[in-house]
Amino acid sequence: MKRVASISASIAAFALAALASSVSAQTWAPAPRDGWSLSGRLQVQQSLSLSCGVSGHATTSSSTAGVIDAFAFVAPDAACGLLGENTPWAIEPLSSGPSGTGPGVRIHLDVTALFNTCVGYVDGDYDNVNTISFPPGTIVQGSSPNCTVEGEVVLTPDHGNTAPLIITP
To answer: 94, 70, 83: which is closest to 43 by C-alpha?
Structure first.
């Protein structure tokens, strides 16, 4: 019986180590690189629901880290201009996005609204070409009360950068 328990524990430890290495092994390229322009439309919700255009800029500082150094919520909803984007926001590659169909990105954000703040991280799917997608009802983890986001943001190489951002396991 002791031997069976020992073998089971060894198998469990091996499975956890394999899972940890597969989660931490994702990288992106090119890195470091300055940068990518961001643009798109997001539906954001906490106490209010807003449809906002977004624009910004991101860089990669290593093969596993980066930063969104500029970000703005803009019209068509006039209230979008009242949101405070407390950048920079850290970003990192994920081996799997929220839909589980491919790679993703994690964005650690800090946004101030009139009555609340939205601080935490949000995971998005990445198509390994140029689009980060947030499925409907994607929750910003750690925010209280919960913030949600949905929509797409497109990355366009800029500042002499001609390469798309690619995430590999």
So the answer is: 83
